[in-house]
Write a structure and sequence with these properties.
- The protein has 6 helices and 14 strands.
- By secondary structure, it is α/β, with parallel strands linked by helices.
- The protein has one domain: Metallo-dependent phosphatases (Purple Acid Phosphatase, chain A, domain 2, 4-Layer Sandwich).
- The longest helix has 15 residues.
- The chain starts with a strand and ends in a 13-residue tail after the last strand.
- The N terminus is likely disordered.
């Protein structure tokens, strides 16, 4: 196993002290046990390899796991996830995706769901965009009001938002139909707070960087398999598992990049028609 492909994004002035180091893990799609395969990929094995790479390359980082932890929302999947995180001794936060069962997660995962996490001059806010029974994302009135309240509470600190679904198109037609459907409501809340420095999302199983109302938006590769970029319909690429690293500086600047994990034994089923 080796780590490949390092792509970096930098915004603002650098500062070498008091750096907050995070990693984003997303779309693990764990099954009931370690033998589960999805699209020809053993999702337990790939997640384990990603966790090992994080431990070697990004020690002491705080991990945010941005949804679709489970393939089908089963208690056993969340127990498997919890055991893996504990065995790798990673501090972490999490949020649900459209394949997850939020209530089951709250019952099973020992680490409670935390809406806002402070890191010195920075605060990370986790948003719930998943709606039971639906693939696309939406932010409820409660979620939007909660965000508004938190942005006011932390108005003197720099803010990052983590959410499962992107609020903006990534130029991948079938996935763009699944983004946050009421993102204009999100803009109404966020636009009045100038210290939101970035949005980090999952769901799309690929890396992308774009801007949304002058806020950088980053999507992150899955810890299992990736979707083909710029595709009109469902298609799986040959790109290996990955994760995103993020460095936050006291002056409000961000440095981030993606690392993919080489998995020679991976046997992706590119004929898979869905998941």
């Amino acid at each position: 196993m080796s780590t490949i492909h390092r792509k970096q994004y930098f915004s603002g002035k650098n500062s070498n002290d008091k750096i907050v180091r995070l990693v984003q893990l997303t779309d693990c799609h764990l099954g009931l046990d370690c033998s589960f395969n999805l699209a020809g990929v053993n999702t337990h094995d790939t997640f384990s390899k990603v966790l090992s790479a994080v431990g070697v390359n990004r020690p002491s980082s705080y991990a945010f796991v941005t949804g679709d932890i489970a393939c089908g929302g089963a208690e056993a999947s969340y127990q498997l996830f919890s055991n893996m995180m504990a065995s790798h001794q990673l501090d972490y936060g999490w949020l649900p995706g459209n394949h997850d069962d939020f209530q089951q997660m709250q019952k099973t995962i020992p680490q409670p769901f935390v809406k806002a996490k402070e890191f010195g001059e920075w605060v990370v806010i986790s948003l719930v965009s998943s709606v039971p029974g639906r693939v696309n994302g939406e932010l409820s009135a409660y979620e939007l009001q909660s965000l508004s309240d938190l942005l006011e509470q932390y108005k003197d600190q720099f803010i990052l938002l983590f959410v499962h679904h992107p609020p903006v198109d990534i130029q991948c037609q079938w996935l763009d139909e699944q983004r946050i459907s009421n993102s204009e409501k999100l803009d109404e809340v966020v636009s009045v707070h100038k210290k939101v420095k970035g949005i980090f999302t999952g769901h799309v199983h690929q890396e992308s960087e774009t801007r949304w109302f002058d806020i950088p938006v980053f999507t992150t590769p899955s810890t299992c398999f990736q979707f083909t970029s710029n595709s009109a319909t469902f298609d799986i690429s040959n790109q290996p598992p990955g994760y995103r690293w993020i460095e936050l500086f006291p002056d409000g600047s961000i440095k981030t990049g993606v690392e993919h994990i080489a998995c020679d034994e991976q046997n992706i089923d590119r004929n898979c028609m869905g998941y």
